[in-house]
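Hey all, quick one. A colleague (J.T.) asked me to put the zinc ion job into the tracker so the inputs and the C-alpha cells live in one place instead of scattered across chat threads. No bug as far as I know, just bookkeeping. Sequence used:
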Amino acid sequence: MPLIAPSLLAANFLQLQSECEMINASEADWFHIDIMDGVFVPNISFGAMVTKFITSASKKYNDVHLMIEKPEHFVEIFRDAGANNVTVHIEACTHLHKNIEQIKQLGMHAGVAINPHTPVSLLKDILADVDLICVMSVNPGFGGQSFIPHTLKKISQLRALIDEQNLTTKIEVDGGVTLKNAASIIAAGADVLVAGNTVFKAVNSTEIIKQLKAL
Ligand code: DX5
Ligand code: ZN
C-alpha cells in the first residue's frame, strides 16, 4: 500500500484551511509542500511563512521539497516552519553529504530529489545516509505536467539499488501521477506517490486519495 502525499501546490490558496482539513480527514499520509525559488526552477511558489500556516493546520507528516539553490541557508527556517522531512536536489548541492547531515542534525528526515535527466547511479554512495529519494517524473517547476515515461525504468533501477544494500530508504515519485499510471509506478517500486492536480482538481479529492491509497 503506497503512502499518498497530496501536493499543496495545486490547492486553492484562498481556501487553504479547508484544503488542509480535507487532507487531514482523508486517507492521505503526508502533506507535500513545494518550495520554488525562481532560480533553480523557473517558477516561484511560496516560502516559510505560508509553509508555517500549512503545517499548523496539518495533522500529518510534513514533507518539504526544496527546489532551490543554496538549500543550506533555508533548512533551519523550514524546520522551524514545521517540516518533518526536507528534500534537497542533488543538482543544487555541491556538498550533498554535508546538506544531508545538516538536515538530520536539525532533527528531520532527509531526502534527495533527482531531476529526470539525472541517473540513479549517482545516488549509490549517498543512499545509506538518506531517508527518501524523490524521483522527479516531470521537470520541476510546475504542477499539472505529464509523467515522463522513462522514469519508470529509473524507479526500478533505484529499487534494485536500495534492495541490494538492504536499506529502508523510501522512493517517492513526484510529477504527473494519475489514477491511470499510479499502479505501474507502484509496480516499479515506489513507496510514496505525490499527487497535485490529480487530487486537488478532482470533483471529489477525498475519493481520489482513497483510490490511490487502495492501489
Ligand atoms: C513539481 C512539484 C510537484 C508538483 C506535482 O515541480 O515538485 O510536487 O506539485 O504536481 P502534479 O501532481 O500536478 O504533477
Ligand atoms: Zn514536489
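Adding what we noticed when we looked at it: The chain has a mean pLDDT of 98. The two ends are 7 Å apart (CA to CA).
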